[in-house]
Design brief:
The protein has 7 helices and no strands. The protein is mainly alpha-helical and 135 residues long.
Length: 135
């Protein structure tokens, strides 16, 4: 499996896992313990990183929202924003364009009609903040 294909699948797996925990309020640790099949390595790394840095990630996203509040975002949109922000902040080995493209692709597949455009704008702003020389 290629790194790109593997990461794409891992992102979907992480999205599903994080969405479920956000929806149920279950802790990441409890959700991992209850899971019969472990997540892929990259998905696990992503989930653990997002869980550990959630407050900081949310602050970054909030700074880049215009006329909107993080708490008002749809759960799936919020999870995708956290995932992309985590990758932009923590994974310099993943190109900015790949992070943004994958986030928009996930939003196209799993979110409402306006979500891909909305998330693309927010995440481009996040990328400009976190990776000013690449965005």
């Amino acid at each position: 499996m290629s790194a790109v294909g593997g990461r794409r699948e891992a992102r979907e797996e992480a999205l599903s896992f994080l969405y479920e925990t956000e929806l149920t309020g279950e802790s990441i640790a409890d959700a991992f313990a209850a899971r019969a099949i472990p997540l892929e390595d990259y998905a696990t790394t992503m989930v653990e990183g997002i869980d550990a840095d959630r407050v900081e990630l949310d602050d970054i996203i909030r700074r880049n929202l215009t006329g909107w509040r993080l708490e008002r975002m749809a759960i799936v949109d919020r999870v995708i924003a956290r995932m992309a922000t985590w990758e932009l902040r923590s994974r310099s080995d993943v190109p900015t364009g790949a992070v943004l493209s994958e986030a928009v692709e996930l939003a196209t597949q799993y979110c409402g009609e306006d979500s891909p455009r909305f998330l693309n704008g927010v995440l481009r702003s996040v990328a400009n903040e976190l990776r000013p020389n690449e965005a």
